[in-house]
Amino acid sequence: MHLLQLDIIRKSTGYRGRPVMIRIHGGGWRLGDKSGFITAFWHLASRENWIIVNINHRFSPTVGLFEILCDCKKALRWVRRNAQIHGGDPSFVAVSGSSSGAHLATLLALTQNDPVFQRGWEDVDTSVQLCIPLYAPFDALGSGQLRKRLVQMSDKESVRKTRRSVAGWADPLTVLRAVPLEARGSLPPFFVVHGAADTLVPVEQARSFVEEAGRGGKMVVAYAEVPGMNHAFDWFHHPAVLHLSWAMGCVLDAAYSERESRLKALE
Q: What pairs with residue 97 in β-bridges?
């Protein structure tokens, strides 16, 4: 059995019944750690009073994308069962991530309550109420430009194995296109963020995903293309990061307030 670890980031007081966000780190599916925490999420915990759950997962090529996504689903299961103990509202869980973590967050949102990924615990609610992918590779490793950069950063054999275990399954854009237009209203809202000058994951990937999400008018999707920003821009102290933090807080609060209004209307 593989033990998965997570951190809970919250204020020391005033956090009872607060909405929860799961954050998935980046690292090309091959490395990374929950300890790599960035400014925007600190802002959400300290200023917006959200409960942030920062998770780890297993890596490719030791395991494939299926197992990595199942790890993320198990983290969501843990949140549903334990959020209230730690001051969170288990009925409202958002998910976000950076780079490969954004890829996983998007797949988590697009495959909610799919029994294929939760064998033996199919009755657990794995839906999410909002997804915020930051500079996600929406076509996984199918991009020639992305593949070339990864080869430059590490050995070719490792990249080959990673591409086989990750891109050999499916990418978020392919998964979204497979969802019938009339069924997309059941998918959670998306706030897609991408740097306009991203040299690792071309911004066209984000534009294509947002365009597809907007087809049929059933999905709620917002898009922020940050001028002049490259991949992983939110790791740095820059005015754009402060604006991103504020925008994420606004979107999260709007989604949570809209959900609360719907619940009250049903009473």
A: 24, 133
